C-alpha cells in the first residue's frame, strides 16, 4: 500500500479506539518508521509503505496498552532538537518549550560572555539543560535527578548534542541536596525546573497515557506545589545575589504560588502560553 493509504488506515483505527490525538500520533509513527521528520511526511505520501507488521504492533501498543506515541517511537522534539525518550521518563511538553525560551531570554539579557552557572532540578530527558547548553557556550549546568533511568537519559542526550562536558549530573533527591550539597559548587546564576507538579490528590484522574510515565515525574505533593515551595524556602542560598528561578507550573496554582513566593521575599512575574494561561514563574530575590 502507499503511505497515504497507511496514514488513512492508521487514523481510522486509532479514532475507532477513541485516541484523541489520532492524527498526530499516526503522522509521528509513520514518519518515524520511514526515517523522515513528521513535517516532511506529506512529501512521502506516494511512496510504498513497507511496514504493515510494525503498524499492527503500533495499534496494539497505542489502543490496548495506551502507551503514548512518544514512548513507542522513543523520541520527541523540544524546540529544534529531537530528544531520545527512555521508557517511563517524562517526554518533553509544549509548556517546557516556553520555559526554555523564557530562560534563554533572561540569560541573554542578564549575563554577558562571562562564565555562567545554572542548576536544573529534575532533568528527565535533559531537554531543558541540553537546549540551554547548546544555546550558551559559556554556560555550565549542574543537574539533579532522582530517577536513575532519567539520569542515563539526560547523559545520552547531552552526548548526542556534544554538551556532556559542561553538564554535571547528581543522582539524588533535591530535598536532601539543597542547599547543603549544592553549596559545594559556585553560586548559581539561575535555577530552572519543570518539577513534578500534578496535585497528589489528582493523580488517579490522569489519562492512562500520562500514568504510563514514572509517578516520580508527576507527583508534586498536596496541591502540586511541594517543589516550588521548597525552592522558594531553601534554594535562595545557592543563588547569586542577582540570580533568578524559572519554574513551570499548572495555571490553577498561580495564586497559591504568588502568595507563597511574595511572603518569602521573592519578586515574581508570570509568563503565559499562547492560550493566555500562566505556565511559567520567574522569581528574583527582592
Ligand atoms: C516533570 S519531570 C521534568 C523532566 C524534564 N526536565 C522535562 O522538562 O521534560 C520532573 C523530573 O523530576 C525528577 N524528580 C522527581 N522528584 C525528584 C527529587 N526529589 N529530586 C530530584 N529530581 C526529582 C523526576 O524523576 C523527573 O525526571
Automatic annotation (TrEMBL):
What's an example Gene Ontology biological process for this entry? 7-methylguanosine cap hypermethylation
Q: Which Pfam families match?
A: Methyltransf_15, PrmC_N
Q: Which InterPro entries match?
A: DNA_methylase_N6_adenine_CS, HemK-like, N5-glutamine_MTase, PrmC_N, RNA_cap_Gua-N2-MeTrfase, SAM-dependent_MTases_sf
What residue ranges carry the coiled-coil annotation?
A: none
Q: Which UniProt keywords apply?
A: Methyltransferase, S-adenosyl-L-methionine, Transferase
NCBIfam families named among the record's database cross-references: hemK_fam
PANTHER family assigned: HEMK METHYLTRANSFERASE, MTRF1L RELEASE FACTOR GLUTAMINE METHYLTRANSFERASE
Query: Which named protein is this?
Result: Peptide chain release factor N(5)-glutamine methyltransferase
Q: Which species is listed as the source?
A: Aquifex aeolicus
Amino acid at each position: 500500500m502507499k503511505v497515504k493509504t497507511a496514514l488513512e488506515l492508521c487514523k481510522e483505527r486509532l479514532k475507532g479506539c477513541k485516541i484523541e490525538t489520532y492524527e498526530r500520533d499516526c503522522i509521528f509513527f509513520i514518519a518515524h518508521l520511514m526515517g523522515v521528520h513528521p513535517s516532511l511526511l506529506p512529501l512521502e505520501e506516494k511512496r510504498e509503505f513497507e511496514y504493515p507488521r510494525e503498524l499492527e504492533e503500533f495499534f496494539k501498543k497505542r489502543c490496548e496498552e495506551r502507551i503514548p506515541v512518544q514512548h513507542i517511537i522513543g523520541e520527541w522534539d523540544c524546540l529544534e532538537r529531537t530528544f531520545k525518550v527512555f521508557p517511563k521518563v517524562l517526554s518533553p511538553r509544549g509548556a517546557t518549550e516556553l520555559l526554555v525560551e523564557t530562560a534563554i531570554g533572561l540569560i541573554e539579557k542578564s549575563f554577558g560572555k562571562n562564565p555562567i552557572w545554572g542548576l536544573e532540578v529534575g532533568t528527565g530527558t535533559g531537554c531543558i539543560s541540553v537546549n540551554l547548553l547548546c544555546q550558551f557556550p559559556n554556560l555550565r549546568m549542574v543537574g539533579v535527578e532522582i530517577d536513575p533511568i532519567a539520569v542515563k537519559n539526560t547523559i545520552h542526550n547531552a552526548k548526542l548534542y556534544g554538551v556532556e562536558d559542561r553538564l554535571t549530573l547528581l543522582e539524588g533527591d533535591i530535598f536532601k541536596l539543597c542547599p547543603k550539597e549544592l553549596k559545594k559548587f559556585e553560586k548559581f546564576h539561575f535555577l530552572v525546573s519543570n518539577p513534578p507538579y500534578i496535585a497528589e490528590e489528582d493523580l488517579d484522574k490522569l489519562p492512562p497515557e500520562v500514568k504510563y510515565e514514572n509517578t516520580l515525574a508527576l507527583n508534586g505533593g498536596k496541591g502540586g506545589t511541594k517543589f516550588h515551595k521548597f525552592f522558594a524556602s531553601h534554594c535562595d542560598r545557592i543563588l547569586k545575589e542577582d540570580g533568578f528561578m524559572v519554574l513551570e507550573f499548572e495555571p490553577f496554582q498561580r495564586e497559591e504560588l504568588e502568595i507563597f513566593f511574595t511572603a518569602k521575599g521573592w519578586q515574581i512575574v508570570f509568563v503565559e502560553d499562547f492560550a493566555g494561561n500562566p505556565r511559567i514563574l520567574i522569581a528574583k530575590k527582592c
